[in-house]
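Handout, section B. The chain below has 219 residues.
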Amino acid sequence: MVRLFAAYLTPFALTLLGFGLNLKSAQAQIIYPFETIQEYETTIVPITANISRVTNTGINIDAPYGLTNFINTNYSELNPSTGVIKFSPDPATFNLENLPFGSITYFGSTNNKLFGTVSGTGLIDFQNLVGNVSDTITITGGEGKFNGATGTLTFVENNTISPNPTTMMKGRNLVSGNIIVPIKVPESDTNAALIGFGLIGATTLVRRNKFTFTTKINT
């Protein structure tokens, strides 16, 4: 009887022990606020009548974490009848083939880098040659302290538009948002303690039943 009872509890105790030996690290994260004023030059290279490849190269004034520079490449499509312009890093969005995916990289003099993509929409006032753009930067990774980073940055810009679409333009905007970086921290010792108590309890229960069984026989 006692042996059967012990045999029943042994797998349970081993399961608890196995769980304790295979504890996974708890997931935590650090949130880095990001805000900077960007000043940049924009080069537009027409691909079709209304679709262009856009490259922004510039600096980040008072940029945090040493990310003083950036370069962004993506694609744009202009609707000449409405003035609406759409931006996307994916050339397939505009039915373009055999072209590289667009991206944005923040970098500087340190080993910190941020990688992401830019998408958004804008509206061009052809009469006054003014463009208003609202973009979202989706962070997809990084280097240095931003290894594995994710997050979202946003900005709105108002620029003067040149009547010549191939002319290099200058822009300025405020970018802000949060960068999230995952970190690993050890599990609390509470789990190990609970497992230990479980094993002790199982052993005590086996001994108690053994004592009761023996007493009944002697009686």
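Note. The first strand starts at residue 26 and ends at 46. Compare this with the example in section A.
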